Amino acid sequence: MNPEIAWPRNDYSRVPFWLHHDAAIYELEMERIFRGPAWSYLCLEAEIPNAGDFRTTWVGDTPVIVSRDKDGALHAFVNRCSHRGAMIVRSLRGNAERLVCLYHRWCYSSSGELTGLPFRKGLKGEGGMPQDFDMHAVSPRKLKLASCHGMLFGSFSDRAEPLEAYLGEFGTGIIKRFLSRPIRILGYSRQRIHGNWKLYAENLRDTYHASLLHEFFVTYGVDRATQKGGVKMDGRHRHNMNHAYASTDTQEDATAAYAGTAARLDRMQLRDRKLLEFKNEYSDGMNLAAPVFFPNALLIQINNSLATRQIRPQGVSAHEVFQTVFGYADDDAAMTRHRLISANLVGPAGLVSMEDGEAIEAVQKATRSTREGCAVIEMGGRGEVRDLAHRVTETPIRGFWSYWAELMGVEPAGAIR
Amino acid sequence: MNRLYELMAEYAMALDEDRLEDWVELFDEDCDYRIVTRENVEQGLPNVLMWCDNKNMLRDRVESYRNVNLYNPHYDRHVIGPLRFTDKKDSIFCFEAGYSLFQTSLEGESRLFSVGRYRVEAHIEGDVARLKSVTVVADTGLVPSLLATPI
Fold this sequence. Notes:
heterodimer; A: 417 residues; alpha+beta; Naphthalene 1,2-dioxygenase Alpha Subunit, Chain A, domain 1; 7-stranded antiparallel β-sheet; 23% helix; 26% strand; B: alpha+beta; globular
C-alpha cells in the first residue's frame, strides 16, 4: 500500500511538511529506503583493520555489526540475536573470534553465522533443541557489503544496483579524492538533533544556507557565495556535492553581495588566524567539499578538517549525526594538531556548523501543526534538476525528494527525476 | 586551596550568568581549553569538540558567539563537585572535579545537557588564582542539539 501524498507540483518545488511528522511515513522509509535498494554508509575500513575487528553501527534504525573475519574478509549483519532478539554486541567496537549474545550465550562467527548454542543436545539426554534444528537457517540477516576506496556501504536488498553504479562516476571519483591515501581515525563526535532525519538530508543539499545561516563562514571569509564553486549531482540527482574554491572572490565582491545582511565583513578579525589556515593538499584546490550520498552519508572537508557523517534516524522526530574525524596516515604531529584545531569549525560545537541543529529544530517545532503547509524550494529554479556552476541554489533538495518519492512509490504524475 | 575553590565557583557563575568575557579572564595567556568526550579518551583518540590552545582563541570564540554565531537561547547552570587534588608540579596545582550542566530554555524547560569531569591545572600568584589548562572530559558524548557556550 502506498501512502497518499498530494504533491502540489511534479518537480518537488513544494514539499508537504507533514512528511517530517508522520509515523507511518517513517516506518515506510525504514522498509523501502534503509532496508530497501539504497546503499547506506556503514563505517570506514580503517576502523576495522585487523582480523576479528568489529564495530557496531546503524542502518536506519536497524542495529548492524560490521566485522573482519580471520581471513580478512568484511561482513555486515543485523545485530540482533536469532534466538530472542537481544542485541548481540553491546559495545561500540572490539576484537573477538566469536560474538556471544549475553542472554543465552548463542555464539556467532565474525561472518555472522550462528555457530553454536549451549545445551543444544540437552543435559543427560533431556531437553535441548530438536535434532533437525538448522543453525544456518536462523542466522542473522546479512547485508550486501561493498567498499569504495575504504568507505563501506551496505544494503539489505538483492535489488540494489552495484555500488559503483549507485554512486556513479561522480560518487566514486569524489570518494577517491578524499580516500586515495591511507587514513588515520582521529575520533568521533555525536549530536542528537530533535528533527526528522530528512531535514538534515535537505540541509546538506542546500548550498545557499551555508553563507547565510553560518555567518562565521562569511564574516571570516571561509566560504562565501561569491567564491567560485557550485553543486554537482549524480545522474539520478540523489547524491550531490557543494564545493568552493579557496581565494576566488574579493572582499569587494563579497561586501557588495552581502550588503543589507547582518554579515560583518569588514569589522571582525580573528586574533588567532591559525584557525582558518588552509594547507592545500588536493590538486583541485577546493577548500570546501561536502559530497552527500543518499540516504545517510556525508564526506566533508572544511579547510584541513576531514570527516564522514552518518545520519542515524531515531524515530520520526529525532536523529543522531555521527561524525568520524580522520586525517592521513602519513600526517606528522604538526599536521594532526592542525587538523584538530581546524576541527573547531565543524561538528556539534563547530563555529561554522553549530547552527544547523538549531535551524532544523526550529523547522520541526513550527511545522508539526500544519497539514497543508509546504516548503518552498525554488532557489536555483523550478522544473528540471541539473548541475549548476554557482552556489545560489537549493536544487539538489528537489533531487533528493525525487529519488525519495521513487523508492517510496509515491511519485506524482509526470514526476521529474 | 580556598583560592582554587573560589576560582571554580567563579568559573561556574561566570558561565551561568553569561559573563563569557569574565570567564576568559580566569585563564592564563598561555592556556589550553578543550572539550573532549569520554568515548574518544577511552579509545586513545585525540578528537576534540572544542580546542583553544591560547587565550586569544578563547577571546575569538567568545567574540564569535557575541557577534556571529546563532544558537539556542538558553540559561546554563553548572554544578561542580568537590575538587580532588591529584598532583602538584612546582607552582601548578592539578585537580579534577565532576560537573553537571543543566540547560533551561526561555520557556523554563530544563534538561540535563552534559555531565562529566574537569581536569584542571591552575596556579596561585599572590591573591589571584588562574587557570593554565582545563580539559572537559564529557561523559555526554551525544550532544543534545548543539554545543555553543563553553562547559
